[in-house]
């Protein structure tokens, strides 16, 4: 059986570094907001080439806190792709704002750059590009529009650790970026963890206080803040794993390349191949008109797959207020997308078997 994702295997090469890191935290006697978080923030900011990194408790918190800090009027609109992950949409409504869903490009799965401008109204305050599956959105277009209409840009980089666009890395492509280090992400902790990267000093100072009750120094409260801290243990684990991120991303790219050029089944649509070396391939997502049949067939052949995501945000019970929207591209994608195994512990031989098995599918009854 080839599992879709086995985190035990993914973390195996990091095991001794993680053990050293956790031992260091245990014996330090200091578990919240200390040296590990400071070191990780500095190293991750350097990695993203941003001035600041602020560790927080999760990716959802990272996005929500930035949107709240921007303090937009309550009826403000935020533009986001209609196939975004639900957490990206939740951050908008948690900040008391209105998501405006724009259809994705069906080959990149990202916010369609030709459809953004028509969604802008006088209430639009920001664009929230989600670098879905590990590929950066069309930031040139997004920057042009942001400048023309005076909009903020909040990247959702939770699937794009190390992804590149032009001269810059994800996390340094807008006014601020939200990160998640959920265990399955390209850079994953052993629990919940998140961060914000930004070059904005004022925002960074405010968020640093906000994550810790609104205190900039012990027992001095400047804001009515939150408790959303990255803990020392997770920070130490992330510090242990960060040095291998580029190597793991390269391995993901090599596997993605095999899929892109090896999958020859005429019914299978592969993602666009124009960004192989910039994309970090958090997920390798194909489309097939009989997705559920293909998925069951692969399961019978010992291949685990997953669906990211089965239900579009506007069809979720939590968003009944968006249920009237007609978003045919996104709806079709949610019926057709299938995520194939792709992670640093997957072998070349396993990929060959997966490709051959999918290429045989049309011949099945
Ligand atoms: C994982 C993820 C999030 C949420 O991160 P959590 O740490 O689980 O809160 C947000 N957006 C995207 C695109 C994600 O993949």
TrEMBL record:
Domain of life the protein comes from: Bacteria
Location of the active site: 185
Pfam families on file: DegT_DnrJ_EryC1
GO molecular function, one term: transaminase activity
UniProt key word Transmembrane: no
Keyword Transferase assigned: yes
Name of the protein in question: Aminotransferase
Keywords, sorted A to Z: Aminotransferase, Pyridoxal phosphate, Transferase
Gene Ontology biological process terms from the UniProt entry: polysaccharide biosynthetic process
Cited InterPro entries: DegT/StrS_aminotransferase, PyrdxlP-dep_Trfase, PyrdxlP-dep_Trfase_major, PyrdxlP-dep_Trfase_small
Membership in a protein family: Belongs to the DegT/DnrJ/EryC1 family.
Modified residues (N6-(pyridoxal phosphate)lysine): 185
């Amino acid at each position: 059986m080839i599992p879709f994702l086995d985190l035990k295997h993914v973390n195996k090469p990091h095991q001794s570094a993680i053990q050293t890191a956790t031992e260091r935290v245990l014996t330090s006697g200091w578990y919240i907001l200390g040296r590990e978080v400071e070191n990780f923030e500095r190293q991750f900011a350097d990695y993203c080439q941003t001035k600041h990194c602020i560790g927080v408790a999760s990716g959802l918190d990272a996005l929500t806190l930035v949107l709240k800090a921007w303090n937009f009027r309550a009826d403000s609109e935020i533009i986001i792709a209609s196939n975004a992950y639900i957490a990206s949409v939740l951050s908008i409504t948690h900040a008391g704002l209105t998501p405006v869903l724009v259809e994705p490009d069906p080959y990149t799965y990202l916010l369609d750059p030709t459809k953004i401008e028509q969604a802008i109204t006088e209430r639009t305050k920001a664009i929230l590009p989600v670098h879905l599956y590990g590929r950066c959105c069309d930031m040139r277009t997004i920057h042009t529009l942001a400048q023309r209409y005076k909009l903020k840009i909040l990247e959702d980089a939770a699937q794009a650790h190390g992804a590149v666009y032009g001269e810059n890395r994800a996390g340094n492509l807008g006014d601020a970026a939200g990160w998640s280090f959920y265990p399955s992400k390209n850079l994953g902790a052993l629990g919940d963890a998140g961060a914000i990267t930004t070059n904005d000093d004022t925002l960074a100072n405010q968020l640093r206080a906000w994550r810790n009750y609104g205190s900039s120094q012990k027992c001095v409260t400047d804001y009515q803040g939150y408790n959303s801290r990255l803990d020392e243990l997770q920070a130490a684990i992330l510090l242990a794993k960060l040095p291998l991120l580029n190597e793991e991303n390269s391995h993901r790219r090599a596997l993605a390349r095999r899929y892109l050029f090896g999958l020859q089944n005429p019914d299978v649509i592969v993602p666009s191949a124009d960004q192989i070396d910039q994309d970090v391939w958090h997920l390798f997502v194909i489309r097939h008109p009989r997705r559920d049949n293909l998925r069951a067939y692969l399961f019978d052949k010992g291949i685990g797959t997953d669906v990211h995501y089965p239900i579009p945000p506007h069809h979720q019970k939590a968003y009944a207020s968006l249920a009237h929207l007609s978003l045919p591209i996104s709806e079709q994608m949610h019926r057709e997308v299938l995520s194939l195994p792709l992670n640093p512990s997957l072998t070349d031989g396993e990929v060959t078997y997966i490709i051959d098995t999918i290429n045989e599918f049309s011949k099945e009854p």
